[in-house]
Write a structure and sequence with these properties.
heterodimer; A: about 425 residues; alpha+beta; Rossmann fold; Elongation Factor Tu (Ef-tu), domain 3; 6-stranded mixed beta sheet; about 20% helix; globular; B: about 300 residues; alpha/beta; 10 strands; about 35% helix
C-alpha cells in the first residue's frame, strides 16, 4: 500500500469542510467521540446541522472566529491507499499557508461552486498548485445538487477553466461534478448524474498514478550527516547519511562529490536492515565510497555525466511569507537541501498577480505576494530547476535577525545572467 | 537508460507507506542531529517513543545516538512500563536521563493541586527545568498529528520560547523537507519526527519491526474501577471513593501515561495482529478512550501545549 499526499484549499461556504468531512467519515477517518464533540459545539452555537468545519479548525482562534487560519494535516486510509490531506485556508491573505500545504502534495483538489462558476479564488488555488509543481489537479465542481445536476453547467465550467489553465504548466487536469453534501461522486458514482461517465473523486485519489512524478533520472544525494562510529567494531567505518533526492544510486557507480568535484565510487549502500543494490527517492540510506575524501554535511553526490548546476547566482519565483517586505538589496539566509548560505537579492524583476497571472513591476514583495527575483549567494549551491526537481529546485529564505522562515523559492534558472549583446 | 528507469520504478513500487514514513522520520532525526548542539529524545516507554527509538537506530547505526534519551517520570507510572524502559535502554546501550516530578515537588518547584491526583500538568515544569539544566536545544517528542486537533496544526519543528510556550499563531511556514532549525538564545525546538504517522501506522510498524512493547498494551486481567466513564487501575496515589467498586476485567491500554489519568479499554487483543484488527475497527480515538486529561475542554491540549507541554 502506498501513500498519497494531497492538498485542498478553500474558505467558508465553498463546501471544502463538507467534502473533507465526507471523505473522512465514509472512510472511517472520523471517530465517534470527535463527532460527538463537534455535535455538542454545533448545538451550543445553535446551528441547525453539525458543522464539519469544527473537525478541521483545531485552534482556539479558528473556532472562535469560524475561519481556517493554518494548515491542518488529516489522515485517512482505504484498503488501497493511505492519504495525508494538507487542508489549507483559501483566502488570499493565507496564500503562504496554501503554498506550504501545496509544497509536499502529489495532487491538489480545487473546489468550484457550480452556482458561481470559476471565480478568482479557484483560479488562485490552481495557479498556486501549478506553481508548486503539483502534478495532478482535480477540479471538483461542487454543489451540483443546487444547479439541478445540470450537465451544461458542468461543461461550461470545465470549458472555461480548461481555457484559462492552458497558461499553466499542469501535467494532469481532471474535472469531477460532485455534491459533497449529498455524497454524489465523492465516494461512489452518482445516480443523479448519469451523463457523467468518469470515476468518483475517491476512486481517482485511490488510483492516480504517482510513481512517475519523482525525478528518477538526475541522481542527487545531499549529504545530511556523516556516520563515524569510532568504535572497535567499526573502526574504519565512514558512511554518508542522507535521503536520495533524485535518480538512482547503485553499488559500483562512479560519483562526483560537489562542490569540490572529486570523483569516487560507491562501495556500499545500506540501511539498518542491511545492504542494498540500489537506492532511489525517497529512501534514507547510508552510502560508503572507495576513497577517503573530504565530504561533510552540505556536500552532494551526483553522477559525473549528469551534474546539477554549481553556481552562486540564481533566478527564482519567490512566495513571500513575512510582514517585513522583500526588497532589492535584502540579505537573508538561504537553505537549499542540506546547505545553508547567505544570499542577497540582486533584483526584483516583477511581481505576479495571482488572480490574473499578469506580471507587474514592483518595488517590493509584501506578505503573500509572489514574484521573480535574482539572488546571489556567499557560497556555491548545487541547483536544478524546480520543474525538474522539487527537492533540489526549492529553497527557503530565513531572516537572520529573527530566525523566521520568510520566503519560499522555486528555481527558474541558475547560473549567471545571460546578457544578450545589443548591436 | 531504460533499464535504469525500470529499476527505479521497481524500487519505488516496492516501497510501502511505512517505508515512506520511515524515510521521512529518519531524515528529520538526521537534520536535528546536524543542526542542533544538544538534542535529547523523550522516551516514556510508550508505543510512539518506542517507534522513535527504532527510527533513531535506523538513522544513526552503526554509531551511537548523537543524543541521550530522557524520561519525565511522574512517579505515577505503571511499574511494567518502568521495567520495560530500563531494559530497552540497556539493550540499546544508550544514555538515559530521568527528570523526576517528585523531585520538582520536593524542591518546591511545583505544588500538587489538592484533590487532583494527576501529575500530568506538573510534568511541564519538570521538563522545562531539565531542558534548561542540561542545556538541551532540541527535544524529540513522539506526538502525532492524528492524535488531537491542536496537534494537527503543529509543525514538525515547533519553536518554544524561553518559557517553553507554543505560539500557534506565529508558527514558521514549513515547506518541502526544508526544516528551519535556527533558534535564539533561550529558545528551544520541539521536534516531532513521527508527526505524519497514525495509530494504525505505529502498530503496523511495531509488527513489521517485531518491536517489544510493555505488557500492559496487551489484554490482561486487572482490577479496575469506573470513574468519569473510564476504567482506572487502583494504586496508592489514586484515592478511591466508596462507591467506586473494584471489578476484575480483561483489559488493555491503548495509550501509556500516568496511572492516575490513563484508562484501560475492555479488550481481548493479546498480540500485535489482534491489536491491529482492533484499531482498524475502533470507533473512538485513542485519547478520547483513554485520557481523562483531554476531556476537560475542547482546547485543553492547545492550552497545555501553549504552556510548554509535550
Amino acid at each position: 500500500m502506498d501513500l498519497l499526499r494531497f492538498s485542498t484549499a478553500g474558505s467558508v461556504d465553498d463546501g471544502k469542510s463538507t467534502l473533507i468531512g465526507r471523505l473522512l467519515f465514509d472512510s472511517k477517518g472520523i471517530f465517534e467521540d470527535q463527532l460527538a464533540a463537534i455535535e455538542r459545539t454545533s448545538r451550543r452555537r445553535g446551528y441547525n446541522q453539525v458543522d464539519l468545519a469544527l473537525l478541521t479548525d483545531g485552534l482556539r482562534a479558528e473556532r472562535e472566529q469560524g475561519i481556517t487560519i493554518d494548515v491542518a494535516y488529516r489522515y485517512f486510509a482505504t484498503p488501497r491507499r493511505k492519504f495525508i490531506i494538507a487542508d489549507t485556508p483559501g483566502h488570499i491573505q493565507y496564500t503562504r499557508n496554501m503554498v506550504t500545504g501545496a509544497s509536499t502534495a502529489d495532487l491538489a483538489i480545487v473546489l468550484v461552486d457550480a452556482r458561481n462558476g470559476v471565480l478568482e479564488q479557484s483560479r488562485r488555488h490552481a495557479f498556486i498548485a501549478a506553481l508548486l509543481g503539483i502534478p495532478h489537479i482535480v477540479v471538483a465542481v461542487n454543489k451540483m445538487d443546487l444547479v439541478g445536476y445540470d450537465e451544461a453547467v458542468f461543461e461550461r465550467i470545465r470549458g472555461e477553466f480548461s481555457d484559462w489553465a492552458t497558461k499553466l504548466p499542469i501535467k494532469d487536469l481532471r474535472f469531477i461534478p460532485i455534491s459533497a453534501l449529498h455524497g454524489d461522486n465523492v465516494v461512489t458514482r452518482s445516480l443523479s448524474m448519469p451523463w457523467y461517465q468518469g470515476p468518483s473523486l475517491l476512486y481517482d485519489l485511490e488510483n492516480v498514478y504517482i510513481g512517475s512524478d519523482r525525478n528518477l533520472i538526475d541522481a542527487r544525494f545531499p549529504v545530511q550527516w556523516v556516520i563515524r562510529p569510532q568504535s572497535d567494531e567499526h573502526h574504519d567505518f565512514r558512511g554518508y547519511a542522507g535521503q536520495v533526492a533524485g535518480g538512482v544510486f547503485r553499488t559500483g557507480d562512479d560519483v562526483v562529490v560537489l562542490p569540490s568535484g572529486h570523483r569516487s565510487r560507491i562501495t556500499r549502500i545500506s540501511t539498518l536492515d542491511g545492504e542494498l543494490e540500489a537506492a532511489a527517492p525517497p529512501m534514507s540510506v547510508i552510502i560508503e565510497l572507495a576513497d577517503d575524501i573530504d565530504i561533510s554535511r552540505g556536500s552532494m553526490l551526483s553522477r559525473p555525466h549528469n551534474q546539477p548546476m554549481v553556481t552562486q547566482e540564481l533566478e527564482a519565483t519567490v512566495c513571500w511569507m513575512a510582514d517585513a517586505p522583500l526588497r532589492p538589496g535584502g540579505r537573508y539566509l538561504l537553505k537549499h537541501t542540506t546547505r545553508t548560505v547567505k544570499a542577497i537579492v540582486d533584483e526584483l524583476r516583477y511581481a505576479i498577480d495571482v488572480n490574473t497571472l499578469h506580471r507587474e513591476a514592483a518595488p517590493e514583495l509584501d506578505l503573500n505576494a509572489i514574484g521573480r527575483v535574482r539572488l546571489r549567494t556567499s557560497d556555491k549551491l548545487m541547483l536544478d530547476e524546480y520543474r525538474d526537481s522539487r527537492t533540489t529546485g526549492g529553497f527557503v529564505l530565513i531572516d537572520e535577525a529573527t530566525s523566521d522562515t520568510v520566503g519560499a523559492g522555486m528555481i527558474v534558472r541558475s547560473g549567471p545572467e545571460q546578457h544578450i549583446e545589443v548591436a | 537508460m531504460t533499464i535504469a528507469l525500470t529499476n527505479a520504478r521497481d524500487i519505488q513500487s516496492r516501497m510501502s507507506h511505512l517505508d515512506a514514513l520511515e524515510a521521512e522520520s529518519v531524515f528529520i532525526m538526521r537534520e536535528v542531529a546536524a543542526e542542533f548542539q544538544s538534542p535529547v529524545l523523550l522516551f516514556s516507554g510508550g508505543k510512539d517513543s518506542i517507534v522513535m527509538l527504532r527510527i533513531a537506530e535506523k538513522a544513526f547505526r552503526p554509531a551511537r545516538f548523537p543524543f541521550p534519551l530522557m524520561h519525565v517520570d511522574t512517579g505515577h507510572n505503571f511499574p511494567e512500563v518502568i521495567d520495560f524502559r530500563d531494559r530497552r535502554v540497556a539493550e540499546l546501550g544508550e544514555r538515559l536521563v530521568v527528570a523526576s516530578v517528585q523531585e520538582s515537588i520536593d524542591k518546591g518547584r511545583v505544588r500538587e493541586e489538592p484533590g487532583n491526583p494527576s501529575r500530568n500538568r506538573l510534568q511541564t515544569t519538570t521538563l522545562l527545568d531539565a531542558i534548561q539544566e542540561h542545556g538541551f536545544d532540541a527535544v524529540f517528542g513522539g506526538a502525532r498529528r492524528d492524535e488531537e486537533k491542536a496537534r494537527a496544526k503543529e509543525r514538525v519543528f515547533s519553536l518554544r520560547d524561553e518559557f517553553g510556550q507554543w505560539d500557534p499563531k506565529s508558527q514558521r511556514p514549513e515547506l518541502w523537507s526544508l526544516y528551519n532549525g535556527r533558534i535564539r538564545r533561550g529558545q528551544h525546538m520541539r521536534v516531532f519526527p513521527i508527526s505524519n504517522w497514525t495509530e494504525m501506522d505505529v502498530w503496523q510498524y511495531i509488527e513489521r519491526e517485531a518491536l517489544e512493547v510493555p505488557s500492559i498494551y496487551y489484554a490482561h486481567e486487572r482490577e479496575v474501577f469506573r470513574r468519569d466513564s473510564m476504567w482506572l487501575a487502583p494504586s496508592d496515589f489514586l484515592p478511591r471513593g466508596e462507591e467506586e467498586r473494584l471489578e476484575r476485567m480483561v483489559v488493555r491500554y491503548r495509550t501509556v501515561g500516568d496511572m492516575t489519568c490513563t484508562g484501560a479499554v475492555s479488550s481481548t487483543a493479546a498480540n500485535v495482529v489482534e491489536i491491529i484488527a482492533e484499531v482498524a475497527a475502533a470507533r473512538i480515538t485513542e485519547r478520547g478512550a483513554t485520557r481523562a486529561d483531554d476531556a476537560f475542554s475542547e482546547t485543553s491540549m492547545e492550552d497545555r501545549k501553549r504552556e510548554g507541554y509535550f
